[in-house]
Amino acid sequence: MNEANADDVVDRLGRWASGRGPLYLLLAARLRALIDDGVLPPGLPLPPDRTLAGRLAVGRGTVVAAYDLLQQQGRVVRRQGSGTRVAALDLPATRSTDGVEANPLLLHILHPPDGVRLLTCAAPDEPPPELAQAYAEAIEHLPGMRDLGYQPAGNPALLAAVAAYYCDRGLPTTTREIIVTTGAQQALTLLAGLLVSPGDTVLTESPTYPGAIEVFRHAAAVVRPMTVDPPGLAAAPRERPTLVYTVPTARNPTGSVMDAGTRRRLAAFAAEHDVPLIEDEVCAELCFDGRTPAPVAAYARGEQVITISSLSKAVWGGLRIGWIRASAPLISRLARLRAVHDLGGEVVGQLAAAALLARLEDIRRARVRTLRARHDHLCAELRAHLPSWSFEPAQGGQTIWVRLPRGEAGSFAQVALRHGVAVPPGRSFDPLGGHEDHLRLHFLLPRAELSQAVRALAAAWRAYDGTERPASRHTLIV
């Protein structure tokens, strides 16, 4: 099994070590579940004992005992010289065996709550009071509605509100240039389905939002990193990209904000090479200086720049309302594609979103004030308890990008998990699996909980750094 496949197995294990009992039993139980669910299909080679032990930051004996138990239960076959493979099993007709990829961050959403403090999923866990009021106003509109409710492009009230939002930001927009989606994730999925064919090259920044990487991979694209400085843009045409994806404002995971000159260069690049460019503005309203920069589309000379956004970060992740702003012909094609998938979004939520956009400035101001305070607190705690870790303070958003002084973040994440904190390693944010010495931390928790999380991370780091030599990803823990 190659290194990438070993990483895939580790990603699918999720929070395997967060239960009670010996580690080998916890590991065996999680592997057995993955095998029984068809995520690890029959015949798949599993990582060698030493390799998996190194990835999980456990002793080799833990992996050997887990594999031996799985062999006794008929889930794996172990042979001297040929390693360990998933055994052939009698499968229910409905069981999937296609080895579906799962983003490790999404696995934490799918995993049931287990007392682990999650620094993985960067989304607000408490809706603002304005949300309930917006829904109450939306429900008041229902008695007078005379509509089937199937609106693939979106509810007219929300389309008008989103168009007005962009006009207020200096980007003239009509309702024909907007389509409402079930969050920004569906926006990405629709665009990839329409614009990307198997084998196409998609360029992204690195690090970048891992959900986008997974969408493009699901479309069978080749995802490659690019830089948005002048040398990087000059080299990009050699990749012959079909699509470019960027997060210019409050970038996930670094929290950086792209300057106006770089936005102009990106827009000019898209126009010159006639390449669609997706700018993800999900966190655009969360800049700590209180200003929301102009979208890249505001600098565009043509129709190549496509803007996506949602209310999941500024308001609440449970409000699954997002949108795409693009040329009217592209929006029309997207609406037809959307109709095939689900006939359109839920109407009451869209009416509530229209009401929320009218109050967005007040919501944004309160949210940024909270985020900035929690960001500063997290940075102070890291400097106090983990002074060897390095990071740049964020300019906005919800996350910071931390570099470890040694070791490999994936292995450290396993140790952190056993100390009650789940953190995402850097390779999840890199299309080529790089940034192995980085991890992302969010600052969405109250300050007391952030302090507890940092102290747990500090304890995990002492355990990890005390037993691990300064290492590459191939260092083994035995």
TrEMBL record:
InterPro entries: Aminotransferase_I/II_large, HTH_trans_reg/aminotransferase, PyrdxlP-dep_Trfase, PyrdxlP-dep_Trfase_major, Tscrpt_reg_HTH_GntR, WH-like_DNA-bd_sf, WH_DNA-bd_sf
A GO MF term: DNA-binding transcription factor activity
Family matches, as CDD domains: AAT_like (cd00609)
Gene3D superfamilies xref list: Type I PLP-dependent aspartate aminotransferase-like (Major domain), Winged helix-like DNA-binding domain superfamily/Winged helix DNA-binding domain
Domain HTH gntR-type: 21-89
The keyword Nuclease belongs to this UniProt entry's keyword annotation: no
Name of a matching Pfam family: GntR
Keywords in alphabetical order: DNA-binding, Pyridoxal phosphate, Transcription, Transcription regulation
Annotated family: In the C-terminal section; belongs to the class-I pyridoxal-phosphate-dependent aminotransferase family.
Database matches in PANTHER family: HTH-TYPE TRANSCRIPTIONAL REGULATORY PROTEIN GABR
Protein name: GntR family transcriptional regulator
Lineage, top ranks: Bacteria, Bacillati, Actinomycetota, Actinomycetes, Streptosporangiales
